[in-house]
UniProtKB/TrEMBL annotation:
Keywords: Aminoacyl-tRNA synthetase, ATP-binding, Cytoplasm, Ligase, Metal-binding, Nucleotide-binding, Protein biosynthesis, RNA-binding, tRNA-binding, Zinc. Homodimer. Its cofactor is Zn(2+). One of its GO terms (cellular component) is cytoplasm. This is Threonine--tRNA ligase. Gene3D superfamilies: Anticodon-binding domain (3.40.50.800), Bira Bifunctional Protein, Domain 2 (3.30.930.10), D-tyrosyl-tRNA(Tyr) deacylase (3.50.80.10). PANTHER family: THREONINE--TRNA LIGASE, CHLOROPLASTIC_MITOCHONDRIAL 2, THREONINE-TRNA LIGASE. It is found in: Cytoplasm. Zn(2+) binds at C299, H351, H475. Belongs to the class-II aminoacyl-tRNA synthetase family. Archaea-specific ThrRS editing domain subfamily.
Length: 626
């Protein structure tokens, strides 16, 4: 069962039409309903609940009671909501479960209303908006009815884990999240609310989706599974440049690049145990009588390489890296959202072997700074993302100064999630999280200190005395998934656009950096000459040779976020100059072509380059959408 619990000023509904052939019979009075000062509980009863509906009812009631006590709610609104799951129970089972939950909550002393089952309904609610106002819960029946492939212990435990939430200031003050003054830190407030609620469902389309389609970057692929996308030439260029940039930064940092398989044996003992320690849903494939899973990170292959390697203390810290194209996670369909959350994604994944906790923490801090540097290169500064740091209470007590230093490095308050005991394989983790225009957060960069998997996989090193020792392992993605970086770039530009600022890509990522527009066919030869000089200087340039009017050509280039527009006419041809319109400041200046080349090179130096992804002449280009 999936539940979304929203503490609300009110919830009201009105039945519109049948959603099932045989919905629950209702009276005229039941076609509308409302409760004020209410805990609204949106519910999806799932197929797995059919194995033990009574247990699901009792677990659900306990969860609802617990949340109601925390928010001091005396009224409960049970609302059937099929959109929380793609694996729904049979309608008759679902209705009985909902009816029984309604009865049990009344027995517990709550005032309860339940919306009718099997109908399309319009509803309105007013969420109270405090940190506990939006929460999600997953109920899973126990027993052997759930297969190993369908069940992930880490995902289940993650739902049950008791978290304590704080905000840590750069001055070292640890404040309970509901007592922190978020004035001036509105983005952090949104992030804290999102993390505590754990509601990953996207109820509407985020703005970056419109942008990725308008710019013909990325599109949905109806011929594949959901969350698998197609990339048009401009999108592939941006994605390829990002892949190259992050890889170069990691190799420059000192990692060795490797390549490993994308599928692994379910029966491998170390892999089987790791699957139940990593909170991700797997894709399962069969080959003959054997079952394999598609990797969801590069851990498996890199761990197996390290297991077979002979490692000396002199080799440490030992850094290994792979850009996984692709990693696979079978996310729920309601959570899939453009480039933000996918089922197939490209993950830059570095794993570092460290001899002890001191070396691991030193690497952790260096990789924290590396992640900041990588994001800055793609146009994301600390103002654009929020930091979450997660650990146990014991780790905090023993390493408080280290955690405070991380907050000082980022220079602003960070969200802390603390646990009484460690469940996951890591003892310390950070993430840089982008909060988008729908107030949803997505993790970008992350580093974790892993204290389990070296022993699980048999990874060892030889110390100064020649004795075999078990190391620690750091998991690091300095950017997060490449697709998520694209999402964050587009969402940031959507925010700027909403504030009246011209959106743009970082210059080194712009699919076309310069567009040359001849005012007439008479100067097309000069436009091509200018384009040739720019292309020779490794600048992506194209020429608008269409029959559109000049103003329309300029508007078209503006709509495509082209950073530099060059208009050439008879005067420019005669004087061998160019008239340049800069998108960044809106200025139009006449200059020598060599000066423009120097200006562009000064902004793109140190970043990777790829040639223009489309034909030089706009008249030769296909239209990929519409």
């Amino acid at each position: 069962m999936r539940m979304l619990l929203i503490h609300s000023d009110y919830l009201e509904y009105e039945v519109k039409d049948k959603a099932l052939k045989n919905p629950e019979p209702i009276s005229e009075e039941q076609r509308k309903g409302r409760l004020d000062e209410v805990l609204a509980v949106f519910m999806s009863v799932e197929k797995i609940d059919e194995t033990n509906p009574d247990e699901v009812v009792e677990k659900a009631v306990e969860e609802i009671k617990s949340v109601a006590e925390q928010v001091k709610a005396e009224r409960i609104f049970v609302y059937p909501f099929a959109h929380l799951s793609s694996e729904l129970a049979k309608p008759d089972v679902a209705l009985k479960v909902l009816q029984r939950i309604e009865e049990r909550l009344r027995e517990e002393g709550f005032e309860v209303k339940r919306a009718p089952f099997g109908y399309y309904k319009a509803f309105r609610l007013s969420c109270k908006g405090h940190p506990l106002a939006e929460l999600s819960r997953t109920i899973v029946p126990s027993g052997e009815a759930v297969s190993r492939e369908e069940r992930n212990i880490a995902l289940e435990k993650e739902e049950e884990l008791k978290s304590y939430w704080y905000v840590l200031t750069p001055e070292g003050e640890l404040v309970e999240v509901d007592k922190f003054d978020f004035t001036g830190h509105e983005n952090l407030r949104k992030f804290a609310n999102y993390e505590i609620a754990k509601n990953r469902i996207a109820d509407r389309e985020p703005p970056h989706v419109k942008l990725m389609l308008e710019h013909e970057l990325v599109d949905y692929e109806p011929g594949s599974d959901g969350g698998n996308l197609r990339y048009y030439p401009k999108g592939r260029l941006i994605k390829g440049l990002l892949e190259q940039y992050v890889t170069e930064k990691v190799i420059e940092y000192g990692a060795m690049e490797v390549e490993t398989p994308i599928m692994y044996d379910f029966e491998h003992p170390a892999l089987e145990k790791y699957l139940n320690r990593f909170p991700a849903r797997q894709y399962v494939v069969k080959s003959g009588d054997k079952k394999f899973f598609l990797r969801f990170a590069a851990c498996f292959g890199q761990f197996l390489i390290k297991k077979d390697a002979t490692i000396s203390y002199r080799n440490l810290p030992l850094r290994m890296y792979e850009l996984t194209r692709y990693s696979f996670r079978r996310e729920k369909s309601g959570e899939l959202s453009g480039l933000r959350r996918l089922r197939a994604f490209t993950m830059p994944d570095m794993h570092t072997v460290a001899k002890d906790l001191k070396q691991a923490m030193d690497e952790f801090k260096k990789q924290y700074k590396l992640s900041m540097e990588v994001l800055r290169g793609v146009g994301l500064t600390p103002d654009d993302y929020e930091v979450a740091i997660r650990f146990t209470r014991d780790f905090w007590n023993e390493n408080r100064d280290f955690i405070v230093e991380l907050a000082k490095i980022i220079g602003k308050p960070v969200l802390i999630e603390m646990w009484d005991q460690r469940f996951f394989y890591f003892i310390l983790k950070f993430e840089f999280n982008f909060v988008d225009n729908l107030d949803k957060a997505a993790a970008l960069s992350t580093v974790q200190i892993d204290v389990e998997n070296a022993e699980r996989f048999g990874i060892t090193y030889y110390d100064e005395e020649g004795k075999e020792r078990t190391p620690l392992i750091l998991h690091c993605s300095p950017s997060g998934a490449i697709e998520r970086v694209m999402y964050a770039i587009l969402e940031k530009q959507a925010k700027l656009q909403a504030r009246g600022v011209k959106p743009s890509f970082p210059l080194w990522l712009s699919p076309i950096q310069v567009r040359v527009i001849p005012v007439s066919d008479e100067v097309l030869d000069y436009a091509l000459y200018v384009a040739g000089k720019l292309e020779g200087a490794r600048i992506r340039v194209d020429v608008d040779d269409t029959n559109d009017r000049l103003n329309k050509k300029i508007r078209k280039a503006e709509k495509e976020w082209v950073p530099y527009i060059i208009v050439v006419g008879r005067n420019e041809k005669e004087q061998n100059t160019v008239t340049v319109r800069r998108r960044s400041d809106g200025r139009q200046v006449e200059m020598q072509l060599e000066d423009l080349i120097k200006e562009i090179r000064s902004q793109t130096e140190g970043f990777p380059y790829r040639p223009r992804p489309l034909p030089l002449l706009l008249s030769k280009r296909p239209k990929f959408r519409g």
